[in-house]
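Forum > Structural Biology > Help requests

Title: Can anyone predict the 3D structure of Exodeoxyribonuclease 7 large subunit?

Hi all, first post here. I have the sequence for Exodeoxyribonuclease 7 large subunit but no way to get a structure on my laptop. I'd be grateful if someone could post the structure tokens.
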Amino acid sequence: MNDLFAPAALSVSELNSIARQLLENQLDGLWISGEISNLTRAASGHYYFALKDAHAQVRCALFRQTATRLAIPLKDGDHIELTGKISIYEARGEYQITVNDMRTLGLGDLYVRYEKLKNTLQNEGLFDSSHKKRLPEKPRAIGIVTSLAAAALRDVASTLRRRAPHIPIIVYPTPVQGAGSEKKIAQAIELANKRNEVDVLLICRGGGSMEDLWAFNEEIVARTIAASQLPTVSGVGHETDFTLADFVADVRAPTPTAAAELVSPNQEEIIKHINQLYEKLQRSITQHYQNASQQLDFLAKQIRHPREKLNIQKQQLENFQAALSQNMAHHFAIQQTRLQHASALLNAVAPQNVLQRGFAMVQTTHGKVVQSSGSLKTGQKLRLVFADGTRDVRVENNPNGELFD
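Reply #1:
Sure, ran it for you. Structure tokens for Exodeoxyribonuclease 7 large subunit below:
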């Protein structure tokens, strides 16, 4: 009976509409202060960012016309005051501030720390080009310092598999953001140098806000990279992101994918180079043979003397021709052997040929290559890749010591 007199329920759309009207009517004309974070500029010219303090944040939109009128350069870390229309985006039930006016208050604390440490390291000469090491043209192994869960790792691994599948990859896993991550990153770099099992080290993570990337602005990370005996490539964030790791590394790449391309020789280019060498060898042998033939023709025309001298020169000519043929054959055989050896080496490292020799590649069900038995768990499903197909298996620890059922 009471249900007959209960107030009618509001729809979500009605609730958001009422909340929008309350916000717009009650909070008009307020000035809010905070620090800019996660600033992005859309292709339309509109700016979107979060205004935050130590405990909370609010979404803000600065449309192109207003941004042009204000003409205030913005960047992450700026302290500002702004006013505008506070409303709810009804479709998602999220509230934001549409900026009408703004004034800057100075640099944010993070940016001040960044500039101070940057100046210190620069004055110490850690950015000087004289300290930069050259990257190896043909690395025997490539190291990666990043998080195992990072999208950057997938991008880098995919690029390396496509360009240089014959080069081993060793990952030195570490958190790339959060409390204490800077120490973990430094430890991973030091471990790679201690083991000395790679020829170049990629230090990478995907894009994010200044706070997300801050571990790569910490002094311990910057100094550890600068002290690395291994050549280092910094691929942190997007093209517009600059961290102190970028300045102290031997090479800065705009993205993790670009970092992978910098350190990996292209397999197609290697094959093309071998073909060019083969063609050059063929031209050299042909030219050498033609020159020798011309010399023989010249010597033959000089035989105009009595029979005895003619016979002597004829014998000399035959000896020279025999020696020339023998030397040509020997020279050609040597060059052919070198070419066959180079081709055999290239075929030996081809992944499909390795599998055809009886080897198998162990992958997780997500396609990630397993490099250590210590990373496996009992009951974990794996995939064995053979030359002629794949098999799914499961890890077991039984008394006989077998790993798979």
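The chain has four domains: 10-107, 112-263, 267-349, 354-394. The chain is about 40% helix and 20% strand.
Shout if anything looks off.
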